[in-house]
Design goal:
The complex is a heterodimer of chains A (about 280) and B (about 425).
Chain A (H helix, E strand, L loop, with lengths): L1 H12 L11 E10 L2 E11 L4 E5 L6 H9 L6 E6 L2 E3 L4 H7 L1 E4 L11 H5 L21 H14 L17 H13 L5 E5 L7 H16 L3 E5 L3 H7 L2 E6 L2 E7 L5 H9 L12
Parallel strand pairs in A: 3-8, 3-9, 6-7, 7-8
Antiparallel strand pairs in A: 1-2, 1-4, 4-5, 9-10
Chain B lengths: L2 H6 L3 H4 L6 H13 L6 H17 L6 H27 L6 H21 L8 H25 L4 H20 L4 E3 L3 H6 L6 H28 L7 H23 L16 H19 L1 H11 L1 H6 L4 H27 L1 E3 L7 H11 L12 H19 L4 H28 L4
Antiparallel strand pairs in B: 1-2
Helix pairs in contact in B: 4-17, 5-12, 5-13, 5-15, 5-16, 5-17, 6-7, 6-8, 6-15, 7-8, 7-15, 10-11, 12-13, 13-15, 16-17, 16-18, 17-18
The chains are: A alpha/beta (about 280), B mainly alpha (about 425).
The structure holds adenosine-5'-triphosphate and magnesium ion (MG).
The site of magnesium ion has 4 residues of chain A, from helix 2.
Chain lengths: ~280, ~425
């Protein structure tokens, strides 16, 4: 099943010049078991620079598991991962970060008590001076970090923040999500993975975040978006990969498919119409 | 934030990068106050109330002599509470600090005593005994930290075990003698020595100068980088305010506090006040300006976020428990110096609870991620004032504890109310 889908993708994709080169990220036959649960089995997945690829599937389909494996939160049990054409082994978040992979997690990984700048640089602070042994006690380069944070937020046109020195706790959901995304792009990252970036956001804030996602692709980054909201996905994604019960069903090119077909793939044909779905 | 506001706020980020006018700065401060972000204000008001109550009950409360006593009384608790602040920032607790302080105190006392009689130890003097005692304390903290992180145990339990075990160790070390007297002059003087009067002015001057230079330097670099900075007029006003407070403090320290006019004059700033101040500045720098401090706040705010950001969370936690025990060790030596001896009851009594209460009264959250080093000083000042004031009134220990308990309760209620206000007005 997955073998066939893979072949079909390639033929499909070849029509668009963006998909003719090497994928930025590619997994081949990755699997992951949690005890008796087979969360992922033999999944092939790819993402290209300059495109937004959506990862969809029902609850428990294995979406978060796939991206956590790519991010190095835990390793895959089998299969290979390629980044820019080279096989890589990712064992920790540090490994994926050093390749240029950044993940914005479903449960936002921001510290509420810290301000925007501190969150954007968390774990990678700029220091005044260098010391292998006493780096932890060197003064932070607050001014430079703040300048850079402001510049990055500006480039992404995130203009609704009052100040980058406010604690993240005081921001709205959309602003927090924007900060989390800006944090991901701050590091000259090549691939940004977003796990349900618009869940729990209102209409205006969802728009804000979707615009931001599009802007990342325009900046020639590869973007992977997980979402349950097909409407959002059809608006923002170039391709859609469907997972079901840990297996990859198929990858669709957004402009060549419709919501009906994708829903069918997600639910194995059991659900024909989703409430609120546009036909 | 509604869609409407979102659109209106377009470009707000750029606005916020403009230099601030003094009026704007004051308005922003008042807005924060109204929104419930009270800072140190409630505790300062509390201190004034405490001072008025005790002064009206006993005219000896606000006298140069008693104020110096107060400083000496609060020193041990304050220094221990510095370490507590770091532990609380992590969202952990350290119940062992009382007896760890005693371990350091008794180690120093025994080594100094034996250096007088045992030729093999004759090389020991205050300047190497104190570091040895502090290293022992830090090693104890390292052990706690390892147990907590390696076996994933709650710090409450590990340090509770520490509380019991180190109490036992102190009893065993002191042995049947019951008290180890400290004869070393330097250690004896640590808590009680005072500096010549001129130093009061020098120290206040240096402190204000460091503050001013730092503020202006920050302002200059921020403005050069095109970032919003605190206005110069506000900085000048703050320096002026600090100079006045500092001058009052120096003046009070320099009043002759000898009871008998014919006796030698007693005046000047206690050495221990300078030590407290230097530690405060050093640790504030560590907490607010370094990567280590940033990580402590991050772990306390969201441990998982810290871990995903690549922070070596367990290493930081071990270091914080080491720091906590190290500061407890410093406090233990100060307390030993104050009593000029270490007895079997060292580290017990209300010490642990006073140290934790100081940090909490000062506004450090028990839930992690929120608090400041200076809260330890303010909280310890409240606790020591209540203790000292009621001592002057000859109130029994029972009354003293009840009142101290109520003060702690009042402090956390004020904090909870201000926090609720803040979450309603969207600051936190
Ligand atoms: N740490 C874990 N331990 C055990 N089982 C897990 C773990 N993480 C995920 N699983 C299981 O793996 C399967 C896939 O989970 P995953 O979180 O990847 O789903 P998802 O597609 O992200 O779902 P959702 O849309 O609800 O976020 C589920 O059956 C889940 O119960
Ligand atoms: Mg998920």
């Amino acid at each position: 099943m997955s073998e066939n889908a893979f072949e079909e993708d390639r033929r499909h994709d070849a029509q668009d010049p963006i998909y003719s080169g090497t994928p930025l990220l590619e997994t081949r036959g990755v699997s992951k078991r949690f005890g008796a649960v087979e969360a992922l089995s033999q999944v092939d997945f790819d993402a290209y620079a300059g495109e937004v690829v959506a990862l969809v599937g029902d609850n428990g389909a294995g979406k978060s598991t796939l991206i956590k494996g790519i991010a190095g939160i835990y390793g895959f049990d089998e299969g290979e991962t390629y980044f820019e054409g080279k096989q890589v082994s990712i064992h920790s978040p540090r490994d994926s970060a050093s390749l240029g992979i950044e993940v914005v997690y479903q449960d936002l990984a921001l510290a509420d008590n810290l301000d925007v700048v501190s969150n954007m640089f968390l774990g990678r602070e700029w220091l005044q001076g260098k010391s292998r042994l006493f780096g932890n006690l060197l003064p932070l380069s607050e001014v430079e970090m703040e300048q850079r944070a402001v510049a990055t937020l500006g480039e992404l046109a995130v203009t609704t923040l009052q100040s980058v020195r406010l604690p993240v706790a005081s921001l709205s959901g959309g602003q927090r999500q924007s900060v989390a995304i800006a944090k991901a792009v701050l590091w000259n990252s090549k691939l940004v993975i977003l796990d349900e970036p618009t869940a729990a956001l209102g209409v205006a804030q969802t728009r804000q975040v979707l615009n931001l996602v599009r802007r990342l692709a325009e900046k020639k980054l590869g973007v992977v978006v997980i979402s349950h909201n097909l409407h959002d996905i059809f608006e923002v994604a170039d391709r859609i990969t469907v997972l079901r019960l840990g297996h990859k069903v198929k990858t669709y090119i957004t402009k060549d498919t419709d919501q009906q077909e994708v829903v069918h793939a997600i639910t194995a044909g059991q659900v024909k119409v989703v409430p609120g779905m546009s036909s | 934030m509604s869609a409407h506001e979102t659109i209106e706020n377009q470009g707000a980020l750029l606005d916020s990068q403009m230099p601030q006018s003094p009026a704007e700065y004051v308005r922003a401060y008042l807005r924060r106050l109204r929104a419930g972000d009270l800072g140190a204000l409630p505790i300062i008001v509390g201190l004034v109330i405490i001072a008025i109550i005790f002064q009206s009950a006993n005219a000896n409360f606000i006298t140069p002599r008693n104020l110096v006593n107060l400083v000496i009384q609060m020193a041990g608790i304050t220094v221990i509470a510095y370490g507590v602040v770091f532990v609380l920032l992590l969202g952990e607790i350290d119940l062992s600090i009382g007896y760890v302080s005693a371990v350091a105190g008794v180690s120093a006392a025994i080594l100094l005593r034996d250096s007088l009689t045992n030729p093999a130890l004759s090389w020991m003097d205050w300047w190497n005994v104190i570091p040895i005692a502090l290293a022992i304390a830090a090693a104890v903290g390292f052990l706690h930290g390892l147990l907590i992180t390696f076996f994933q145990l709650p710090s409450f339990i590990v340090t509770l075990a520490g509380l019991l075990a180190w109490n036992g160790v102190v009893l065993l070390i002191i042995g049947p003698g019951g008290t180890v007297v400290i004869q070393n002059a330097v250690v004896r003087d640590l808590a009680s020595a005072v500096l010549p009067p001129i130093w009061s002015w020098i120290i206040v001057g240096v402190f204000v100068a460091i503050y001013g230079i730092n503020e202006f330097w920050t302002m200059r670099t921020r403005l050069r980088a095109g970032l919003r900075a605190k206005p110069a007029s506000i900085i000048i006003a703050q320096i002026a305010f600090m100079s006045v407070i500092g001058a009052i403090i120096a003046y009070v320290f320099n009043i002759n506090r000898a009871l008998n006019a014919e006796a030698l004059p007693q005046q000047g700033m206690p050495v221990i006040a300078v030590i407290m101040l230097i530690l405060l500045m050093l640790l504030t720098f560590v907490a607010e300006r370094t990567r280590f401090g940033r990580y402590v706040y991050a772990i306390g705010g969201n441990k998982e976020a810290a871990r995903r950001a690549g922070i070596r969370v367990e290493r930081i936690r071990v270091l914080v428990f080491m720091l906590s025990s190290f500061m407890a060790g410093c406090g233990g030596i100060i307390l030993a110096s104050r009593l000029k001896s270490v007895a079997t009851d060292a580290g017990g009594g209300s010490l642990l609870l006073y140290a934790i209460a100081s940090a909490v009264i000062g506004g450090t959250s028990l839930f992690g991620g929120r608090g400041k080093l200076s809260s330890a000083v303010l909280g310890a000042l409240v606790i020591a004032s209540v203790d000292n004031g009621m001592g002057l009134l000859n109130l029994s220990a029972g009354v003293k504890f009840i009142i101290t308990g109520l003060v702690l309760l009042a402090a956390v209620v004020v904090d909870a109310l201000s926090r609720r206000r803040q979450s309603q007005s969207g600051i936190r």
